[in-house]
Amino acid sequence: MSDTYCSDCKRNTEVVCDHSAGDTVCSECGLVLESRSIDETSEWRTFADDSGDHDPNRVGGPVNPLLADAALSTVISRGPNGSNGDGSLSRLQNRGGDPERAIVLAFKAISNMADRLSLVSTIKDRASEIYKRLEDQKCTRGRNLDAIVAACIYIACRQEGKPRTVKEICSIANGATKKEIGRAKEFIVKQLKVEMGESMEMGTIHAGDYLRRFCSNLGMSHEEIKAVQETVKKSGDFDIRRSPISIAAAIIFMITQLSDSKKALRDISIATTVAEGTIKNAYKDLYPHAAKIIPDWYAKERDLKNLSSPKS
Are the beta carbons of 283 and 311 closer than 8 angstroms? Predict the structure, then answer.
């Protein structure tokens, strides 16, 4: 019990809380001081049947605006081993079919792949939106779902300014190859171009977009990461005709040669998913500009002659 002011008694009186009805009642005069109050404490009651399931949750998933029913449709469960009556209602519902079953499965696949890459929810939502636009055009039938979903995630990452390499996407694509994902990406871009009447904005990739993740994979220090970032920024002043990911990997290789904790080329190749030969070629193009792109505060105490010659 607790003390609350009662308007009939004209003073503070002890009140009784009836949790089942949500009423707060004065213990002296019986006046209902508050009705239908909401209990905001944790839910500990189990709403399951006799199946032995003790999950206290009694609500469904979140609302999904990309689905016609906002993901609020009713599903009749049969219980474990087909129990819960004769299961006739569940069979009838399954027999009727779900017109959005395919898109729900695609959304689940997008969520699972994105979780394996530790992607943020905004990228998941963008990938789901891209797939929904394809589904509305009814152009996904007969195509490799894993490749289409992986391509949607690849495009969403680029549009959100958090690009991932094709190899990274391929590693979580449930068997879809780089070639299949590449074809799916071109197909999506083509289809959405037809829908919008203009080219689809993919977002520009820069070498700096990959640095933080690659350096973290290699366990580089904060000082090394800062040096790599400044070097990549200065390298933009020169005409280095290599892909952004190749430039990023080559600069990481260059900076680590000047540090106390040198990294093997093979380790950098694994962390960046760039072939060793590709890193060497990009390094060969960057080497003549090393003195101009490596920051003075990092290289002044270290001799740039420690950099290995591209010919070696």
Answer: no
Task: Tell me the two tokens of residue 115.
Answer: 């979780």
| Tally of CB atoms within 10 A around 197 | 6
**What sign for the dihedral angle of Cα 42, 48, 50, 54?**
negative
Of 211, 302, 295, nearest in space to 252 by CA: 211
Q: Where do we find the tokens 């499965």?
A: 105
Distances in Å between the alpha carbon of 38 and those of 34, 191, 228, 290?
11, 50, 55, 67
DSSP string covering 40-64, please?
-SPP------TTS------S-----
pLDDT 10s per residue in the chain (312 long)?
567 888 888 888 888 888 778 888 888 888 888 887 776 666 555 555 555 555 555 555 566 767 765 555 666 666 555 555 556 666 666 665 556 778 888 899 999 999 998 899 999 999 999 999 888 888 888 889 999 999 999 999 988 888 888 888 998 888 889 999 999 999 998 888 876 666 667 777 788 888 888 998 899 989 999 999 999 999 988 888 888 899 999 999 999 988 888 889 999 999 998 999 999 999 999 998 988 899 888 876 556 777 888 865
- Cα(223)–Cα(302) distance, integer angstroms: 14
Burial class (CB in 10 A: 0-12, 13-18, 19+), 204: exposed
Pairing of the two strands 2-6 and 23-26: unpaired
